[in-house]
Amino acid sequence: MGILDDFKLDGKTALVTGASQGLGRGMAEGLAEAGADVIVVSRSAERLEGVRDTVRGLGRTCEAIPADIGDTSQIPGMIESAIAVTGRIDILVNNAGTGFRAPPEDFPEEEWRRVMDLNINAVWHCSQQAGKIMIAQGDGGKIVNTASLLSFQGGILVPPYAASKGAVMQLTKSLANDWAKYDIQVNAIAPGYFDTDLTQAIQDDEVRSRQIIERIPADRWGKPADLKGAVVYLASAASDYVTGHILTVDGGWMSR
To answer: Which domains does the chain have, with CATH numbers?
Structure first.
């Protein structure tokens, strides 16, 4: 057995939320390429079909579960459906997220609640449900949350997004402490500026987009495939002694 074997995910089942496009799809495909069977979750049943077909094309089991986990009442049924596919959950990737931009003094209450429900409340409930399953399985597990550069910084015009992503970072550390005794590692990836639908408004702003590129040492926006290595590492035995860590994948933004 060599070190590269520790990165293999053969025989593991991963559940990825927000997997129909962007970062979630990139991570789901990366996990499948490393050998995992993958359950993909999103509100969009139509978009899920594409990632499901791609994963199955790699020879892995893949089931698509349409669910709006921002409505936390849907999470138990989603978890139950996932377990019905392969009988277990070894890896949970809490990736589903959203945002809304507005001045804090005029921020709509309904948008505050919508962002918080999906970005942190769903992460908590999915982690709690999957954690119970991993504990019962008795052979450990991996939880990988999607944090953000705004877990560390305040951002502009995004108060609930920054608040929720700061909470994701702290929840990651808290669960890592409590579940280490069960051999469950809980970590997070903090992506930098990635080319996704969520950042399209910023990309379309010539001034803001130029300012961002000028600060990134890598001199480009990230692509979803740039997260494959990070998520496979945190989901595999290669990271068994890593827990409570927030891994920035940002082209050097935070070091600038």
So the answer is: 3-249 (3.40.50.720)
pLDDT at 53 over 90: yes
Q: What is the pLDDT of residue 97?
A: 96
User: H helices within 87-199, ranges in order?
Assistant: 109-116, 122-137, 159-179
Please provide residue 224's backbone torsions phi and psi, each rounded to the nearest 5 degrees: -50, -35
- For 227, half-sphere exposure in the C-beta direction (CA atoms, 13 angstrom radius) is 34
Q: Write the CA distances from 178 to 121, 127, 173, 212, integer angstroms.
A: 18, 12, 9, 37
Task: Report yes or no: 145 and 92 within 8 Å, Cβ to Cβ.
Answer: no
pTM score of the predicted model: 0.96
Average pLDDT (238-255) is: 98
- Please provide the distance, in angstroms rounded to a whole number, between the alpha carbons at the two ends of the chain: 39
Residue given tokens 């990736």 in the structure block: 95
Residue found by looking up tokens 């494959």 in the block:
228
Which of 183, 163, 146 lies closest to 27 in space, CA to CA? 146
> Does 161 qualify as catalytic in the annotation?
yes
Specify burial of residue 217 (Cβ count, 10 A radius: 0-12, 13-18, 19+). exposed
Structure token pair of residue 88 = 């277990």
C-alpha to C-alpha distance for 110 and 105, rounded to whole angstroms:
14
The active-site residue, picked from 161, 182, 193, 241, is 161
CB of 244 closer than 8 Å to CB of 186: yes
Measured between alpha carbons, how far is residue 35 from residues 5, 6, 84, 227 in Å? 11, 12, 20, 16
